[in-house]
Amino acid sequence: MVRNMDFKEIMPDVSGWKRINDHYTIKKVEGMPKITVVIPTANSGHLLEITLGSVVRQKNVDKEIIIVDADSEDHTSAIITKYREHISRVYYVTADNTALMINKGFSLATGSYACFLLPGIEYLNQYCLCHISSLAKEDHLPDIIFSGSYLAWPNFENFRDALKRPVDEINPQFVYFPFNKTWLKRGFLPTAPCSIWFKTDYIKKVGGIKQGSKVLRKGLYDLLCGVLRDKNRRVTTSFWSTTFNDRLVEKSYLNPNDFIKTWPITYKHFGLFNAFAWIFRKKPVKFINALAARLSSFFRE
């Protein structure tokens, strides 16, 4: 069962960015579940503090921060030391595999819900996690909660640049799709990956983020397509809470060659017809170029 907000209520306009930055105050009430935030890092000290600091500043919520670090050799350790009193656990791995690192963080989580943040993604509103926690309590602890997300990257180099601009100069792209077969078979995630909260018991039950692709978005897409088949899963949605800036995210997340990897996932879950329909809904030329690039890489090797 999915509770979706009316699209008239969530359509973005010039005031959308201002709504995110307004200082909402949400009171903490008894029974609100604890939330674990997993942050995977791999030589991303230059991005870690903006993300970690935003989680530390969350108000009126029981939270747990878990850092999973792939033996970083930059100044990541200094940032971790700076915030150590706020971090529940730091776990070190040798392999820089984001999906594996997130799954490890989920396995260590003691919160009722868990989410992940890649360094460079920030919750701008200090009551974001409180909002999600209160929503979880209100809706009797659903298996998944996801929110809409504002993408500011087309116009601004970083968050601070955006926040200095007048509201009428900012036209963020709003991302929010219903969680259903219609949208998933087209290759659309319902929101930005950082805007999905999993009930900890449930994410462990379904096996975590799929690891067949090094691209996190594809692994998450595979996971959500599988979750869709679970008729007993309960999903709650909210349009409000996060901002995502892909200029600050690792380049592999946006590698155009990984465009082709969505096809086999779509084929696996929705069949051959929908897989080919996905190609033609996208840009066939882009798909062909990605395929050609992949084949040429084999010959170079």
Summarize, please:
By secondary structure, this protein is α/β, with parallel strands linked by helices. It is 39% helix and 16% strand.
Beta-strand content: 15-25%
What is the distance, rounded to the nearest whole angstrom, between the alpha carbons of the first and last residues? Answer: 48 Å
Summarize the helix and strand pattern as letters: EHHEHEHEHEHEHEHEHHEHH
Compute the number of strand runs.
9
What radius of gyration results from the CA coordinates?
19 Å
What does the main sheet amount to? Answer: 9 strands, mixed
- Net shape: globular
Structural class, from helix and strand content? alpha/beta
Stretches where pLDDT is under 50 for at least 5 consecutive residues are 1-18, 246-256
Helix percent band = 25-40%
Mean pLDDT: 77
DSSP summary: helix tally: 12
Give a description of the structure.
Mean pLDDT is 77; it is low at 1-18 and 246-256. This protein is α/β, with parallel strands linked by helices. It is globular, with a radius of gyration of 19 Å. Strand 2 (35-41), helix 3 (45-56) and strand 3 (63-69) form a beta-alpha-beta unit. The chain has helices at residues 7-10, 16-21, 45-56, 76-82, 98-108, 128-138, 159-163, 181-184, 200-205, 216-228, 262-281, 284-300; strands at 2-3, 35-41, 63-69, 89-92, 113-116, 144-151, 173-175, 196-199, 235-244. The protein starts with a strand and ends with a helix. The chain contains 12 helices and 9 strands.
